[in-house]
Amino acid sequence: MLDRASMLRRVAIFFMTAGVVFGALAIGQGKQGVTLELGAISTVEFVADRSITVVDEAATEVAEQVAREAVEPVLRTDGSVEGEVRSRISEVLDEVEASVVDTPPAISVTPLPDEPDPTTTTSPSTTVPDEETPSTTTTTVPVELVTGTVTGQVFIDVGEEADLLFDEGIDVALVGIDVTVVGADGFWTTVSSGADGSFTAEDVVVDGPVIVAIDLEDPSLPESLVISSANQRQDLDGGGTDVVAEAFVFRPNVVPRDAAESNLLGAYPDLDLATVATLVDVAREDIVRIARGRSPQLSQIEARALDAAGNALESGIEESEVPAVRAQIKQSATTRLVIIDGQPDESASAAAADLAGVFLMANRVEDEALFLDQQDAAAELVPDVEVDYSPGELIVGVGEEISQPALAAIEGLDLNRPDPVGYGALAVLSAVLVLMIFAYLARFRPGFWPPTAVFPSSASSSCSLPSPSAAWNWPRARSVTTPTSLGTPSRPPASGS
Hints:
The chain is α+β, with helices and mostly antiparallel strands. The chain has helices spanning about 5-25, 55-70, 80-100, 255-265, 275-290, 300-315, 320-330, 345-360, 370-380, 405-415, 425-445; strands at about 45, 50-55, 75, 125-130, 140, 145-155, 170-175, 180, 190, 200-205, 210-215, 225, 235, 245, 250, 340, 345, 365, 385-390, 395.
């Protein structure tokens, strides 16, 4: 019978041997996964083991982009465009008005003498000797002052040349302009110019120096006028007779026509030359119109230009339509003429059309936010582009580039996982192999593993019995002792035999 320690040792050896065999068999078992990257070259072949459908993201993105591009731009009417167009047209007309007015020349004005106080003024007198008693008596007699009239005229010289002569029907009489006349006695007389621009001051002391002057800051004087000569104050010699003053001649204070046109073209180069010339002429003439009490006509051109631009923008204009609409506005200028001084004026009509056309802008603009929303909505309606793989179908071969659908299929089918090892089967196989080895040793190598037997101590002598199987005997010298109770006594081997 085997003792407990021997049995445990043999069991331990069995399991250790089985474990070593199991480990040796498990080495290299199962396919290991490989690193897969999009666009990389595959080093192994992947075949679908079942059906799978994956999304081709690149093809889907292309289809979505096509759907986005198919969406028409979304347009809306920008209400601020009309206001901007009107503002720019009015800005041009304001610039024209300012550009034709020249800087007024500096005129040195001599102030008028202070008027004397009537309560302290004494009349001039002379001493006359008494005829009856000339040597003893004299009489003081007041000197009689010589009075007369002072006349003159105030007008605007409209002609190209300043001739200082009033041409009725051409030049413009200035009405209601205050003229101050200072007589030889120092007293002032203020009169106003009449319908023809003339003025008359009566009962002016004229037997000495007489001053005739006008106030250039008089609000009655029209703006943009300048006196043509330095005769704002005229110092005249009365001479005891009526005095005729020189005419107070004003001229429009305008920039030379060529200079005004050049400045305007520099500021607005898109305007036609004819338009610039017309605007400058009308603006220059407006100065005289205002002086005559008539309405300026530059505003007529502005009104027609604003009207034409507003009508065009009312129906909405896209950017591609602007040239055609400009042409239509110019054509309409011949049918709707601007009225200047009560008469149709073709050049003014053409100028208004040119103004409207040059500054016309598209007011049908893209609604960027809504357009992007509609593009996104169109892209969302595009179905995913799918790729189907059937069982046994090659997904990617060795040396082929890994596409996005192929990578998705490989990952979806979990084809890149390591092959599971049948560890239970290996364990059984290992145990079977070890048992076969032990059986082989027991059958064909009986002396490989000897047993150890222990008998009860009550026997008078100890003896060793062979094990039930000779396979457990170690290969060494043996002695057999036969107990007396079991039969024939043992005999020692004969020496020398």
